[in-house]
Amino acid sequence: MADPIVFAGTVEWSGENPGISLKEAPDGPFVALASFFRVVLSPDSVEASGDPASVYTETVQAGDLNVRLTWSGLGEPFCFALPPEKSATGTHHMPSLFVGCETATIAVNGRALPGQPVPREIAGRTITTAMLAFSETWIRAD
Predict the structure, then answer these.
(1) In this predicted structure, what is the pLDDT of residue 4?
(2) Among 23, 96, 100, 130, which is 20 to 30 Å from 16 by CA?
C-alpha cells in the first residue's frame, strides 16, 4: 500500500470552483472573467446541468440577474496539488480535480460576453483558461 499524502494545516474550504477567463486574442487582455464557488446556502437559485464529460452548465438566478456559465469540449479529468507558495493564494495547499475544456461561454441575462478561452499550462498539462475544478480543498499551511 502506498504511503498517504497528508496536508498539514487547517481546512478552510472545500467544494467546487470552476472558472472561465476569456480573451478576444491570445496575447490580449482578459475581457470576461467568471469564478463559480458552489455555496451550500444562499438566497440565489443555482442549477447544474449537462455532463462533465462533454458539456456542463452552471446557471445562477438572483432577482433579475441570470448568469449562465457553459463549458464544452471537455477533456480528461486529472488531479494535482501545488505547494502553497505556487497556489492561487500563496498560502494554501489546494488539491483539486480539474477538467480542461476547449470552449466556454459566459452569458448575463441571455447576452453572451465577448472572448474565448486561451491555452494555459497547469501541473504540466496544457488546458485553457476555462476549466471545471471539482473537489477543490483549500488547506491553510500552518
Answers:
(1) 80
(2) 23
